[in-house]
Each structure stands twice: as structure tokens, then as C-alpha cells.
Amino acid sequence: MLRSKVAGIGYYVPEQVVTNNDLTEFMDTSDEWIQERTGIKERRYGKKFEETTTTMGARAAEKAIADAGINKEDIDFIIFATLSPDYYFPGCGVLVQRELGITGKEAGALDIRNQCSGFVYGLSVADQFVKSGMYKNVLVIGAEMHSMGLDYSTRGRNVTVIFGDGAGAVVLQPTEEENKGILTTKLHSDGTYAEKLAFISPGAHGGYHQRDAEEKIDYAFSDAKYGEMFVNEHMLENGLLFPDMEGQFVFKLAVQKFPEVIREALEEAGLKPGDIDMLVPHQANLRISKFVQKRMGLSDDQVWNNIQKFGNTTAASIPIALAEAVEKGAVKEGDLVCLAAFGSGFTWGSALIRW
Ligand code: UT7
């Protein structure tokens, strides 16, 4: 039976460390509040005007490609998950192809806009391509440069303190080895509460969407007969060009959906929570990870957390955490690894991998 295995993995985090105390220079917050509510001590920010989501993704990809022992030119297909793309369009998939210098082969590139669950979705798509025999080397990247799009005033503190920059990547290859590779992936979504965690502008909503209807925000910028601008002064003045989250609402759903989707994958594979050697949850909030750990009856050494150092890097958080766990020898050949994510959309998912 053909399965896909993680043949190579790598991550990249920018050098610049930003502590909780650094953020108190701009907003009314404290190291104590951030650590107590999120577990975060510090995060990394990319070098302004030098690093981007694409360049960080490329650095992680180079490591994954080297780890797989292949050449960049061997990549058949690129999947790039991010919510902070360099451009509105084209996507980071083609930009990373150019950054890696592999445009000559004209390999396909696909961008995934599923925020926190973007990497799990990307992995699942790649898994289908590899299992079907369509591609032999699929590169899956999760990368974010949040620091370029955050509200650094007190107004944005509930979101801004959480996010960090970074990138992680894997190369998936086919394998016929018994009991190795991706056993299953589970993907879900429910768009009912799309605006509870969203970055709605700039966008083509033209002034109408659910949250505006509720709050009666008037976006109208001009009296033009057709169309509006993606970005207008009203949005700027009212801080609508930043991510926005109803934290407690998201938190409550997250702690319900994480265990649900992990159990779903385990059941399909005929396994139980105790069989998990390493759970790598999306690094949303340390309190969420601890809650999930308790619900699943797992011990500290069965769950990998690094949000303390890197913050929430959205689509990059799982590949960064997984790559770090592998690098530190916490994930070994034959281990059962479980990935799980929940976030904006809402979208959520899990993957079970026999390492
Ligand atoms: O990654 C994708 C999915 N995302 C998540 O899963 C995130 C889920 N949500 C969370 O992690 C948490 O809800 C947050 C960390 C975002 C917020 O923590 P919370 O304990 O839910 O706080 P809260 O939003 O209920 O706010 C409590 C208080 C408020 O003040 P009042 O109204 O009680 O006076 C906030 O204004 O804390 C205040 N607050 C802050 N204070 C200091 C919010 N952010 C900050 C801050 N520093 N950075």
C-alpha cells in the first residue's frame, strides 16, 4: 500500500527576539498578563523590509529539502499555507518557487488560506497527491510574517501579544514500508462564526458582511456607481485593517474541537490516546494545549509546546514545533505522532503519522 512519509523537515525563525516587556513600550499590557493567559514569554519578529513570509518559508524549505537528501529541482509540487502573504496576489507558492530558484521546472504551486489549520490542510492535500502516485516530492510550507500587520496600540493588545513570525516545512514522499507514514488526516470547517477571528479588510466585501450588519459599521468611501476600494480611509481610521478576535469565544470552541478531531483520527486508525508518542498541537495558547493534554490523558513528555519561545505562528506553528521535536530527538522512528489544529474559519483538523 502506497503511503506518504515525511522524508525531510526543517524550520526557520528570525533572529530578532521580542519579549513581553518590549511590547509594553507600545501598549498597556504586562509580562505577567501575557504569561498567565497565554504562556508566551517571547516571540520572534522578522527583519522589517528584508524578511517576508516567502523568504522565511524558503529558508525552512531549504532545510527540509536538505534533510530529505534531494535537490531543490526534485520538488514536483509546492503547497504554501499562510494568512500573512507577501502580496494580496499572487500567492506565496509561486514566490517561494522563485526564491528557491526552481521556476525552470514549472512545478505546480498552491496557496492555502486556512490560517491556524493551514498546515494540516496542506499536509492532507499533499498526502492525496503522493498516495495517488501523482507526485514524488511535495513541499509543504507553513509560514507567517505577522509582525508586519499587527495593531501595536492598546486597542490590538489581545491579538498582537499572541502572534510571532516563523516558518516550517516538510517534504512528503511515497513509501511502501509497512506501518510508516501518514495513517490518516481529518479536516473540518464551519463558517458560521467566520468573523469571530478574522482579518476582513482589505477585502472584496464592499462594505457588507455579517459583522458590519451587526455593528452597523459604514464602509462607504465614495459615491462611485460601481465598486469600492479594497482599502479606504475609514478602515484606516477605525482600525479595521488589523486581525480581530473574540478570544474567549474562540478558546471555548478550540478546547472542544481539538480533542474531538484527535479522537476521530485515532478511532479511524484503530488506536487510542495512550498510543500517541507525541502530540504536536497548533501553538494557539499554552492553556489550550494543557487543557487538551488533560482531556486526552497525556503526560508532559507526550505533548510538544514551544509557544513560550515563539508565540503563536499560525500556519507555521505545527511544522516549527514538529521540526524542533525531531531535532531534539523527542520524535523517533516508529513513534506515533499526532498533529492537531483549530482556528479561524472556523477550520480544524488532525493528522496521524507513524514516524
Ligand atoms: O490561533 C488561532 C486560534 N486562536 C486561539 O485559539 C486563541 C483563543 N483565545 C485566547 O487564547 C484567549 O482568549 C486570549 C489570550 C486571546 C485572551 O485571553 P482571555 O483570558 O480570554 O482574556 P479576555 O479576552 O477575556 O480579556 C480579559 C481582560 C480584558 O479586560 P477587562 O475587560 O476584563 O477589563 C481585556 O481587555 O484582559 C484584557 N486584555 C489584556 N490585558 C493586558 C486583553 N489583552 C490584554 C493584554 N494585556 N495583552
3D architecture notes:
Helix 3 (53-68) packs across helix 4. The chain has 12 helices and 13 strands. The protein is globular, with a radius of gyration of 20 Å. It is an alpha/beta fold and 355 residues long. It has helices spanning 20-23, 31-38, 53-68, 92-100, 118-131, 157-160, 210-215, 233-237, 247-269, 286-296, 307-310, 317-327; strands at 3-12, 16-19, 42-45, 77-81, 108-112, 138-144, 166-175, 181-189, 197-198, 244-245, 278-281, 336-343, 347-354. The protein has 3 domains: 3-175, Thiolase/Chalcone synthase (Peroxisomal Thiolase, Chain A, domain 1), CATH 3.40.47.10; 181-193 and 245-354, Thiolase/Chalcone synthase (Peroxisomal Thiolase, Chain A, domain 1), CATH 3.40.47.10; 200-241, no CATH class. The mean pLDDT is 94. It has a 5-stranded mixed sheet with strand order 1-7-6-4-5, with helices on both faces. Strands 8-13-12-11 form a 4-stranded mixed sheet, with helices on both faces. The structure holds oxa(dethia)-CoA (UT7). Oxa(dethia)-CoA (UT7) binds next to helix 2, helix 6 and helix 9.
